[in-house]
Description:
By secondary structure, the chain is of the alpha+beta class. The chain contains 17 helices and 25 strands. Strands 1, 2, 3, 4, 5, 6, 7, 8 and 9 form a 9-stranded antiparallel beta sheet that branches. Helix 4 packs across helix 5 (about 190-200). The N and C termini lie far apart (about 75 Å). The relative contact order is 0.08. The model is unreliable at about 1-55 and about 420-425 (pLDDT under 50).
Amino acid sequence: MKLRKGPKVELCVCEGSVVHSLVFREGNFAMSIENLNLHENIGGACASLSETLHGDGKLRITELRGWEAIKTSLLSCKLEHAWNELLAKDSVSGFYQTPLWSISWYRHYHDEFEPLLLLAEESGVLIGLAALAMDKPGGRILFAGDPMADYRDFVCADGRRGELVVAFLSMIMAIGNGSVFVLGQTQPNSETTRAAEEWANSAGNARTIRRAHPCWRFRIGSSEEIDSQFKKRKTIRQAVSYYNRQGGISLQRVRGVQEWEEMRSVYFQQECLRRAFAERSTTFDDARKQALHEDLFRSGAQEIHFSVLRVGERLLSFMFCFAFRGVLYYGTPAFDPTESKRSPGILHILEVIRQCSHEGFSEVDLTLGSSSFKQRLGNHCVMLPSLYIYGSLWAYRKARIRQIVAGIVKRGMVQLGESGEDSPGRWNNLAEYWRECRRHSLRQLAKRGLSRLLTVFIERRWEQAYVLSNGGAHFGRNLSKSANLVIKTMQLSDYLSLPEQEKSELPSLVQTAVRRIEAGHILHTVLVDGLLVSHGWSCQSPQAPITGDLGAMVGEEGSVWLYDFQPIGSRKAIDECVGFMEVVRGLKHRLDGSKGRLYLIVQSKMEDPQMTSRLADLGFSPIRTSRRLRVLGLRIIG
């Protein structure tokens, strides 16, 4: 810790049952180490730092480090009660500074982030608190809940924020060994970032980069203003009319545990599919995040606001939000991506805003971000400050270079686009793509890049159409023997059961599936031991398969086309795919008694005579073939 001119500073560190006390004094500098007994305070058995900042007034900073120490403190003293009392004295605190959020997050993420609580006491009264954590792999200090928390700030009694920010930051930068510490985003009226910047600049304690982020909010006024949000966009009016014909939309606030248990798996699945459809990394496939939301809901706290939007009896979309001091904070949405054209998420927010006006809320905070839907829904925008504090000059310079490059790229996006409104979305997509690249090894990236590059220069494809003979298939053999094999139809969520090594294909699979489901085609999935092993598509004439050159073929009325049936993560031929014959048998059973026939389209990079022979043994006869070879965009064959 860097010493400042003025009063004495004491540093007390506790390990087990012994406190090691380092005492620093100004002037005639002295340092001593002593063994002391644990003192009884709000922290219980913990490490502590105490610093006299104001003459006769003694300010003690107590450190609680590790989940076990926090659990002990919660059980042995009134930490949670004192925490809530302090929140009442802090006019700029929010939900993400409550013990409900911070302790729940500690409980489920302490395997990756070591909990770290700093408690500021004066005369035995808690006047400040910093809910932090240490990233175990890198040792960086961050706020509890980062990056899930939209607001990250210290909890300080009004009038004491300036001095407490100095005390907290002095300790944070010492514990974090000078690594970058991100303060914020904070509420616009919070003085934390200003006080931190003054501290950093006053004696060269650290270097800082200030940023500001737009946050759209809807200040609840008259019911006419809320209704106007439904009427001002044609797409919203059309979506409401569409759903009214299906029984109408209705919003339900979920409060009971039984209702939650019935809906939670659908909520988690829809959130993952929504993010995959938007080409963003999924988060609710992490058991810790599921358990966190489970705990939050089961707490029964009035701050938890979970709702579902129904169309008749169908669950259309979900929203897990947080309420605090008359403000509803937009949380984690989820909706069926096959309904994305009708903007179910926006319909849900509008219904929530309408409900909030009846429940006495003053505002709906759409939280960080400048997405186009937030701009359309919000009626005012505030800028949320954040401050990046660097203890290392080299880290600061690298960050400044990144900031300059990012600024150039963003400005270029605005100039290349038709308007500047879409540039934040394009920048977010680029940032998400960069994060996705960092999750893969250089070897994986090189392999994927080379594969895509080759498709630009050379495109080779072979297609074969078959028809199932009137005699039917030989179902007595080639049926899958796995006892745990399950065949499903129209279960988009089965794509979430991809093997781990195939997860990178999830976005493209979901996007393709949504497009085909919208066209009225049927998804077939095959799972073994809970993992997706193969999948395919079917459609009924006069619809045509969404595939290559043979997709324009139309069979007899009522005929069924099976196409794009393929294994997951292997190079097996279609007839060797697990579950293929079971799907064929199910489709043939559907056609029994009709004039329709079962057609099959197979695609590969080259012709496979052995597969054609095996399909013939199963009752499939080839009827048409298409070959294509393109080099640098020039058609050579086909």
